[in-house]
Structures are given as structure tokens and as C-alpha cells.
Amino acid sequence: MIHDHDDFLEETFADMDLTGADLSRKVFEACHFEHCTLSGTSLKNTTFESCTFASSSLMMADVTRATFDGVRFEECKLAGINFSAINDFCINLAFQGSKLISCTFTGLDLRKTAFSGCLIEESTFRECNLKDSDFSGVNFKATLFSASTLSSADFRGASGFAINPCSNTLKGARFDHANALQLLHPFGITLR
């Protein structure tokens, strides 16, 4: 069914294994993906508009020039995704309770993006605008923020982050009192 058409409106795709599938140039509008596996799937030039992925996995999927406008990932696993390759004209993403492992975000405007309650591991945010983004409750592991704008971002309840205040903009960012001490780590300062 998914291979036979190019445009989908308000469709639900459940329990589908799309490993290695070529879904290039397809358009999904207001679609719901639940318990789907997209491993090594080609999503080149594919458009996702107002779509939800729930309890699904996207691993090493090719998202070159894909459009993600109003897309939510709920309790998903995303591994090895180079979000820097997506169509940066219109980005509107939200991640909730998901695992982002070895994902790359470079040069993207991700203002007001929600990452709440996620595990973000071995990922990179470089030269991104993350102003007003929600990182509340995120568990970071070996994740790098470099030359990014984190103004007014919410890091309350987050743990494991390593953010150098000298190489990122943090004006107005919100941290828990105890977690804010992690910001001193790049300076070699220890408080007891």
C-alpha cells in the first residue's frame, strides 16, 4: 500500500517494517506512524506535514532534503539521523520521551523545539538556533553544544549536559539551581 502511492492524507500506518524501503518524494499529510521501523529507509525529498510518529524507530534513515513541518516523535528511537541534511526552509519538530542517539543538528533554526523527557546521547548541536527550546527533563550523555543560541531555553530537570557558556549563547536560559553548577565544568571550577 505505501509503495503504491505517492500522496497520503490522514492515513495510519501501524506495525510496519519499512527497513531499507525507498519512500523518496512521497508526501504524508496528517498521517500517524505507530510501532513502525524505518531502518536504512530512504526519505529523500519526502514531505511530512502535521504527522506523528509514536513508538517507532528511525535508524540510519536518509533524510536528505526531507521536510518535517509539524512533526512529533513520541517515545521513538532515532539513531544516526543527520537532521542537518533536511530541508531547512520549514522545520517544525517536537520530540517527547524519545531516544536520540548519534544524531546531528548543524546550522538549523530549531527555535521553540521541544525535546522534553528525551534521552539525547552522543549527538551534536552545532551553530543551531535553539532559542526558547524545551530541554526539560532531558538526560544528556556525551552530547555537544557548539556555537549555538540557547537563549531562554528550558533545561530544568535536565541532567548530564555539558554546555560551555563561552561558546554558546545562554542569556535567559533556565536551569535548576543544582544543575546550573554543571555550567562551571568547562572552567575547571569545583564547588563543595
UniProtKB/TrEMBL annotation:
Protein's name according to its UniProt entry: Pentapeptide repeat protein
A Pfam family annotated for this UniProt entry: Pentapeptide_4
Coiled-coil parts of chain: none
Lineage top rank: taxon: Bacteria
InterPro entries noted in UniProt: 5peptide_repeat (IPR001646), PA_immunity-related (IPR052949)
Matching SUPFAM superfamilies: Pentapeptide repeat-like (SSF141571)
